[in-house]
């Protein structure tokens, strides 16, 4: 028979039973808000956790992480439009990276992604002038089937000369690029492209006049095209720098006199 221990022995046991970690009964955890406790049917008394049905998360379509697609050609055109607005309002000397970015309502860093510097911005603007001039001359060279007269030649030649305030502002950008980067190969190629377009337009005018019998057979057409090109460049420079000295009526008279002289 087992010997019974006295109550005094039980009182002296250490540590007390209530503080023994291996005898302490763990607290029962309350089920979380996302789980429900259910009892397995039949003989099993074990409890299992079953996830509660959750409401599907709804997100705003505007807040969805969708990558933004940017039309880079449209963004470049937007900056060039802003440049021409600055030129039209304040003149070509007001064109800076800061002023163009502010006019477009975008940051300087964003503009720098498309145009590395102010010079690159000016070069793109001049190239836009080249393209517009070439398109206008192409339309004239195609013609509408009517006879090409000296009056038609004068109208075509005046497309090269900046006769309006807007075109004078645009020509200022060309002069800025020509004056500041005459020795730079990249910018010189753009100016050479503009000269080639104007020379081709002058040659087209002279050849069509010759085909209509308005140019003397003794004239050399290439030489006359170069002479007309030189005349138009000089008139363009004077109308930009001093439009009071060279009004539109005088410009038209000078071009008409030159065209009429080709028949002699």
Give an account of the 3D structure.
The chain has 264 residues and is mostly helical. The chain has 2 domains: 72-116, Homeodomain-like (Arc Repressor Mutant, subunit A, Orthogonal Bundle); 119-261, Tetracycline Repressor, domain 2, CATH 1.10.357. The chain is built from 10 helices and 2 strands, in the order H-E-E-H-H-H-H-H-H-H-H-H. It has a two-stranded antiparallel sheet with strand order 1-2. Helix 6 (150-157) packs across helix 10 (248-261), helix 7 (165-180) packs across helix 9 and helix 8 packs across helix 9. The termini are far apart. Residues 34-38 have low confidence and may be disordered.
Placed side by side, the strands forming the largest sheet appear as: 1-2
CATH level-1 class of the largest domain: Mainly Alpha
How many H/I helices?
A: 10
Q: Beta fraction of the residues?
A: under 5%
Task: Write the element-wise H/E pattern from the N-terminal end onward.
Answer: HEEHHHHHHHHH
The secondary structure category is mainly alpha
Write the layout of secondary structure elements.
Elements: H1 7-11, E1 35-39, E2 47-51, H2 72-90, H3 97-104, H4 108-114, H5 118-142, H6 150-157, H7 165-180, H8 185-211, H9 221-241, H10 248-261
Antiparallel strand pairs: 1-2
Helix pairs in contact: 2-3, 3-4, 5-7, 5-8, 6-8, 6-10, 7-9, 8-9, 9-10
Question: Which features characterize this protein?
Answer:
264 residues; mainly alpha; Arc Repressor Mutant, subunit A; Tetracycline Repressor, domain 2; 2 domains; two-stranded antiparallel ribbon; 10 helices; 2 strands; 4% strand
At a glance:
The protein contains ten helices and two strands, in the order αββααααααααα.
């Amino acid at each position: 028979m087992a010997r019974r221990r006295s109550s005094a022995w039980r009182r002296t046991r250490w540590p007390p039973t209530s503080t023994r970690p291996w005898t302490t009964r763990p607290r029962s955890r309350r089920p979380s808000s996302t789980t429900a406790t259910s009892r397995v049917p039949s003989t099993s008394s074990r409890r299992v956790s079953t996830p509660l049905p959750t409401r599907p998360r709804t997100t705003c379509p505007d807040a969805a992480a969708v990558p933004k697609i940017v039309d880079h050609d449209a963004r470049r055109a937007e900056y060039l439009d802003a440049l021409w607005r600055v030129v039209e309002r304040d003149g070509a000397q007001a064109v800076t990276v800061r002023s163009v970015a502010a006019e477009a309502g975008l940051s300087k860093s964003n503009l720098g992604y498309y145009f590395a510097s102010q010079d690159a911005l000016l070069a793109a603007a001049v190239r836009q002038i080249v393209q517009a001039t070439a398109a206008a001359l192409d339309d004239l060279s195609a013609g509408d089937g009517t006879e090409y007269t000296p009056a038609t030649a004068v109208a075509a030649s005046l497309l090269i000369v900046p006769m309006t305030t807007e075109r004078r502002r645009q020509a200022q950008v060309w002069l800025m690029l020509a004056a500041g980067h005459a020795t730079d190969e990249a910018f010189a190629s753009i100016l050479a492209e503009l000269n080639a377009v104007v020379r081709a337009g002058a040659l087209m005018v002279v050849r069509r006049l010759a085909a209509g019998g308005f140019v003397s057979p003794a004239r050399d057409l290439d030489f006359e095209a170069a002479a007309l090109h030189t005349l138009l460049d000089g008139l363009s420079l004077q109308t930009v720098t001093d439009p009071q000295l060279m009004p539109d009526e005088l410009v038209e008279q000078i071009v008409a006199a030159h065209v009429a002289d080709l028949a002699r």
